[in-house]
Structure formats: structure tokens, C-alpha cells
Design goal:
alpha+beta
Length: 407
Amino acid sequence: MKKTVLREYARLIVRCGVHVQKGQEVLVYADLDQPEFVQMVVEEAYKAKAKKVTVQWNYQPLQKIHTRYQSVKTMGAVEEWEKARLQHYVDVVPARIHLVSEDPDGLKGVNMEKLAKARQLSYPIVKPYHDQLENRDQWCIAAVPGVAWAKKVFPGLSKSQAVEKLWDAILSTSRVDENPVRAWEKHNADLQARCDYLNRLGIESLHYTADNGTDLTVGMIPEARFCGGGEMSLQGIFFNPNIPTEECFISPMRGKAEGIVYATKPLSYQGQLIENFSVRFENGRAVEVKAEKGEELLKTLIAMDEGAAYLGECALVPQASPIAESGLLFYNTLFDENAACHLALGMGFADTIEDFQNKSLDECRALGINDSMIHEDFMIGCDTMNIDATCADGKVVPIFRNGNWAF
């Protein structure tokens, strides 16, 4: 891949993704797959006048070794220096860049029960720090190819060919063209126009149906609104949290979901795949899950805490999107969620509440925003999916027909 193109992508992530401010600290989270590109991102952050850039590396094989040999107590401990670091982030509000490239099967065979118990120990300690940063900071999730991931997507190619092919797919679906910033401005305007239409309807519930058996009704929070594309932080900074993105999303009312939904793409969770699964809801809670592969992992996911079995997001994505039209299964949530309508189990988004800037996080949650230690998207869209909105005035308005926008 040409370095000039990669440089444009790095600049897009820094300038349009997190929108680094002069004097701001920047955190970059990355795997060991593309150090040269990470170097470009770091340099672009400094060119944007960042005060300090810190890179935190992850490596799945080490994570497996740590999980094997450490006790749950050790893995779940949050040391004093880690608390001090978290408090520093609360104080300085850094911009966060997450560069994903992990192997979808990279943690296959790891003791997931042990990992889950460790996270359950640490989460109550780190949660107060995370809550203090909620909606204050800018963050962006983007992708770079890892060899194992590329071979999963393109198994018939050599390693180098697969990586190059995955680079092509990432850059094209991320709108890295002659002028990526201008392309994103246009894309954000289109998503905002669709959100504006949805918000004018006064939607009380969404009813999903498809020929695979999906029949699910999800209730909305009266004060909630659809969002999409770029967001505004509480510090008044516009940023794009996902590159790429194709969704208009909302957080539904906790406790209002009835019926069954069938996933249409695999879910990569904690480095393992869950495939061909369904989730049945009663009174908003996932009461039954079934999967051809990874069923026990799925059961672990919805039992992580009290909120893990409730919905935190409903996202609308047409089949006529660049990622869907690529025909690729990415085995990566960032991309696969933007190829199909999806739901998320777990944490909801406080910034989907109207006038959230003038409300506390607790007030947003009291209105019906779900709270959880997880937020896991799973894809449900297909070319037979229909979605109807029941509105406050009693009208039923078609939102999706055969997998695409009905307006």
C-alpha cells in the first residue's frame, strides 16, 4: 500500500476522527501488526499540536499466557498506579485512538470464565473513572490489517496478498479517496438528515421482522433521539467515533423488548467467534440464547452483570452501504456492524438523550438508558428485513423494506 495513501488515512483518523486539539494528550491503543502505521498516526497527532502521545500495545498470545498463569485475583486487581493513571486521564481528558487489527480467533481456547471473573472484579473499581469521562472525551475506532485477520477474510491468498487486499477494503469503505475529509463531511450530512427525519416521527417502538424468523419489538425512550456520524463532546469538540460508519442509532428503553432475533453474521467476542445464534427477549431481558458455535460464550456474555442481558443500542444500517456491497465478511464488529442493522447488548449511550449536556449520567440512566460493563454489537440485518415504527400519534411508518431505507 502506498505510503502517501496511508498517510492520508492517518491524518483522517487524527484530524477528522478524534479531532486532536492543541495541547491535548493522545492515547493510541494498538496491536503489534502495523507499527509503521502507528508511527504515522503518532506523528500526525504531533503535527496537530498534541502535547503528548502515548501508545499502549496489545498482543493476543501474551494475553493468553497471562490468563493461563495468573490467578483471577491477580488479573482482576487494579493497582494504585493504575488508579493514578486513570485519575490522570480524568483530569486531562485525552483523545483516544483505537486501532483494531486482532485475530478474530486469537483467543480461541482461553479460559473465558476466568477472564470474565477477573473483569467482574476490576470493573467496579474502574467504572467511576470511566463515568467521569463519559461524553467529555473524543475517541475513534479505526482498523489496520493484521496477518491473521487478513487470512481469515481472504483465506485463498498469501499473507502479503491478503494484507494488501484487506488494506484496500479498509481504505475504500473508510472513504479514503482524493479528499477524505470532504467525503466525510458529505457523509455526515447525509446521516444527519436521516436522523432528523427519524426524530421528527416521534417513534415509540420499532418492530423488526425477517424471513429467518426474527420478530422483535423494541420500545424507545421518549427523550431519546437518533444519532449518526460525527458527535459533539461536552467540551464542544466535533469528532467521528467510528471510521467507517453507516449507522443511525438510538438507545432503547431498558426493559422494553419482546420477541426473538436471529443474528445474520458471526460475532467476534473476546477473540472468539459466536456463530448462527439467536436471542429471545422477555420484558426487555435476554432470557434464552442459542448458538451453533460459541453458545456457552454467549451465555457468559449476557451474565457479565445485571445490565448485560438488556439492550443498549438499536442501529439502522442499509444493505446498500459500501461495506455490505463489498460482499466481504470482515469477522470484525467495526465493519460488520456497518454492513447490517444491529443491536447491542449492554451499555446504552447517554448522549442519545435530548439535552444530555444539561443532565447527569444518573439522570440519563433514570430515563431508561441501560448501564453495563459490556457493550457488544451483533448483526441482525438482511435483505428481507422490514422495520416498522409505531409513533406517538398512532401511525405506523415503514422505516426499512427488504433491508434498505423505506424513505
